[in-house]
Amino acid sequence: MSDAGRRDSGGPQEEAAQDNGAVMKSTASDGAEKMACSQDVSAATPPCNAAAAAVQPQPQPQQLAVGTIDRPSAQRRIVKNVQSVIPRNRLELLKWNGWGYKDSMFELKGDLLCFTGKRYPIGNQTLPYFTEWAINKLGIDVNRRNRAQPLPKPADFPKPRVETAFLSELKGHRIAHSVSGLDRLVRAHGHTLHDMFVLREGAFDRIPDVVAWPECHDDVVKIVELAAKFNVVVIPFGGGTSVSGAVSCPTKEHRTILSLDTSQMNRILWIDHGNLVACCESGIVGQDLERALQAQGYTTGHEPDSYEFSSLGGWVATRASGMKKNTYGNIEELLVSVRFVTPTGVLEKRTQVPRMSCGPDFNHIVLGSEGTLGVITEATIKIRPLPPCKKYGSIVFPDFESGVKCLREIARQRLQPSSIRLMDNEQFKFGQTLRPTPGYLGLIFDGLKRMYITKIKGFNIDSMCVATLVFEGEKKDIEYHEKKINAIAANFNGIPAGETNGERGYMLTFVIAYIRDLALEFNVVAESFETSVPWDRTITLCKNVKHRIGEECKSLGIEHYFISCRVTQTYDVGSCVYFYFGFNWTTLPETSDPLSVYERLEEMARDEILASGGSLSHHHGVGKLRAKWFCGQVSPLGVQLYSATKRQLDPKNIFACGNLVHIPSSSL
């Protein structure tokens, strides 16, 4: 949307109240206060119809008046309208019942797998090794497909439960909204296996009653005010990539449910070149943010696997992690300040400083709040100049244990590259099936490499594993860094396997999510789940979870299943481990529900993770899917502390999405 199409909604009605370096602004005050505070906000955050401004020289900072918020002045401000890749009508571009773009998918044509479209390097290539692996490992029958149901018709959607007066006030404030069944369905789910299975096979018990598209912070303030006035539930919706059930509607909620879609709040409000920070609206998705920043010579460096579609606000709300966190940090390290709209006011820090010792850091009330306390409207984040050099690498290890020990030593010496990932043997072999047909030279090279590794070095093809690496920075620093890492790897029998293998591994990062849609078509339910774990328990946890899954599958008569893991992040004190699990449901009794069986097995895996010293989640979040374990992770007193915060910020339980802690009634 162009800036000309955005409305000047005026400043929110504010009354500043100081508390430990933060500001809570009341959403009700007299006209004089509104006029004074509107002037402050308009200088800090552009109104909805602000025109794009050219980059201006940065003047010397002026002393702030008491009660104002420290943001760049209008002269320093850059209002950059970002043309989003994803349209407001998401189904113009994205699948309604699967992952990603409509023109991108794994497709089985006869006995050959291919990936369609031109958006990814693997696009329009034949992958001849996959089908044999899928038949042998997962027992698929290429002639037995499970076709998805068609898109529901308008008459199939439940009628919205919404008061006419509420819709009239939304319209009066010129806030775009819809009660269309399709608009509501698209925002009724994220991307859990449960969500996708229901879209293909059944129907949701509850979907939002209305969808609203605010265009700026002030619009969100108005929506939340109206929701409190009419006792309407608000569920924030960003990129829709949640894998924790976070955006699904509580089935027993009888109030009107509004999905607050932040996708139209996608501007970069300003960039501070001197301090290397940028303020952005929360609805901007990762690929749009990076494209706009890179045009100015910057990057956030934050690349979660979902970054094409996930939003900045979603990253903050779930405490997201990116693959290159070793260089750039996780989202909590990137976040400088945040604007957070709650039913009792707007929470934000007073200053844009690198660190404060002013009591608890209120950023951490917002981080991980998962839509239960309010809506993130703007975030100020750190940015970095684009790195001059980027290089991939890979290292082969004789077994997973050797690889884990090597990664631990690299972390101990604080030599991690921007990203380092270790795949176990099952995942390594699976990745090999997604190679396109190589040319003659490729076959010779792969053959020579395999002979050296297996015959001369004595590696077993059924136990070896591979680490993939990404280096970013100055060329000479990368060369030194890589040399040091390879020397450490040699102590654990690791062999450098080249840049091409490393690049291929990371290329698969953004296409692997598409494989689940193909799996469902061939009667395989599959999902990923993750944890963080201390170093001394990493290997044991991986073994225990795989063993538990194997035993439970056997007890249920599941003949064909796949369980693998990878170490995907490393820290001083531990690692993040990702598991991939799926099984062919055709050997289950006819009365069994494949989805229920899978969910029971994943719960058992989660119990094993916790018993083995792992966390409930490293970066996916809790949502509703893992809420039953939340108290065990944070203690009963921790739940009481969270609940007290909830009562203070949201006393009527307007943000009743049900994540983290289940609140059975419609009020607190």
Task: Please state the second-level CATH architecture of the domain at 388-509.
Answer: 2-Layer Sandwich
First-last Cα distance: 39 Å
CATH domain fold name of the domain at 388-509: Alpha-Beta Plaits
- Please report the first level of CATH classification, the CATH class of the domain at 388-509: Alpha Beta
| Helix count from the secondary structure assignment | 21
Question: Which segments are poorly predicted (pLDDT under 50) over 5 or more consecutive residues?
Answer: 1-45, 49-69, 439-445
Supply database-style keywords:
668 residues, 21 helices, seven-stranded antiparallel sheet, single chain, transferase, alpha+beta, globular, 19% strand, Uridine Diphospho-n-acetylenolpyruvylglucosamine Reductase, domain 3, disordered N terminus, Alpha-Beta Plaits, lipid biosynthesis
Characterize the structure shown.
This protein is α+β, with helices and mostly antiparallel strands and 668 residues long. Among the domains are: 118 residues, Uridine Diphospho-n-acetylenolpyruvylglucosamine Reductase, domain 3; 122 residues, Alpha-Beta Plaits (2-Layer Sandwich); 41 residues. The chain is built from 21 helices and 23 strands. The strands form 5 sheets. A 7-stranded antiparallel beta sheet has the order 1-2-14-13-15-11-10. The longest helix has 21 residues.
